[in-house]
Amino acid sequence: DSGVTQTPKHLITATGQRVTLRCSPRSGDLSVYWYQQSLDQGLQFLIQYYNGEERAKGNILERFSAQQFPDLHSELNLSSLELGDSALYFCASSGRSGPGELFFGEGSRLTVL
Amino acid sequence: DQQVKQNSPSLSVQEGRISILNCDYTNSMFDYFLWYKKYPAEGPTFLISISSIKDKNEDGRFTVFLNKSAKHLSLHIVPSQPGDSAVYFCAASPLRRPDKLIFGTGTRLQVFP
């Protein structure tokens, strides 16, 4: 158990819809990262928040947005969903360990039909 | 443009033998390298890391070797155990920045009795 909690674990929706994925980081970790893993791809960095502020942005589409709340949980919002958005979305946190070491949640599997 | 490449999608090894997983990178700015292990339905978990100032790092049965001139790193597992069966991702970053972490596509290791 990494201590990072993600909900929901599975989500099936239709094209054009909007979904929200939620992440609670490990206790005490201030940084939250979102990654996307499409079929047969590596994990693609989307965005990082640190203590409520956006810290870094990766290959995140404009249709996607995220935020980190005062209690440090984070939400990733995906809108105008397309078939290609089907993927595993991982949240990770870091803070107390080595700077490159991330602790991942179990992921949210999104299927867009 | 894949900056971190794991050219072997899968590897099958007999229990007790050595498993060698390989990873190549192209960006000479990378100076911190990590291996993550992922079981089905779980998030990746940190396994071992190495800084570019070293060429070897060992942790129990796991050893990571770094060849900077060849831009190549490898993970050795000795002896391999059935519980090591998982997908292994290598990752690299410059300046130990987690937001710059680039993951490979993974190698599925199967250890059979």
Structural description of this entry:
The complex is a heterodimer of chains A (113) and B (113). With 113 residues, chain A is mainly β. Helix content of chain A is 0%, strand content 50%. Chain A contains no helices and eleven strands. In chain A, the strands form two sheets. In chain A, strands 2, 4, 5, 6, 9, 10 and 11 form a seven-stranded mixed beta sheet that branches. Chain A has a four-stranded antiparallel beta sheet with strand order 1-3-8-7, with no helix packed on it. In chain A, a hairpin with a 5-residue loop joins strand 7 and strand 8. With 113 residues, chain B is mostly beta strands. In chain B, 0% of the residues lie in helices and 53% in strands. Chain B contains no helices and eleven strands. In chain B, strands 2, 4, 5, 9, 10 and 11 form a six-stranded mixed beta sheet that branches. A five-stranded antiparallel beta sheet of chain B has the order 1-3-8-7-6, with no helix packed on it.
Write the layout of secondary structure elements.
The complex is a heterodimer of chains A (113) and B (113).
Chain A: E1 5-7, E2 10-13, E3 19-24, E4 31-37, E5 44-50, E6 53-57, E7 64-68, E8 74-78, E9 87-94, E10 103-104, E11 108-112
Chain B: E1 4-5, E2 10-14, E3 19-25, E4 32-38, E5 45-51, E6 56-59, E7 62-67, E8 72-77, E9 86-93, E10 102-103, E11 107-112
Parallel strand pairs in B: 2-11
Antiparallel strand pairs in B: 1-3, 3-8, 4-5, 4-9, 6-7, 7-8, 9-10, 9-11
Give the integer mean of the pLDDT values of chain A: 92
Q: What is the N-to-C succession of helices and strands of chain B?
A: EEEEEEEEEEE
Quickly give the structural class of chain A.
mainly beta
Give the topology string of chain A: H per helix, E per strand: EEEEEEEEEEE
Runs of chain A in which pLDDT lies below 50 for 5 or more consecutive residues are: none
Overall body shape of chain A: globular
Question: Can you give me a brief rundown of this structure?
Answer:
The complex is a heterodimer of chains A (113) and B (113). Chain A has 113 residues and is an all-beta fold.
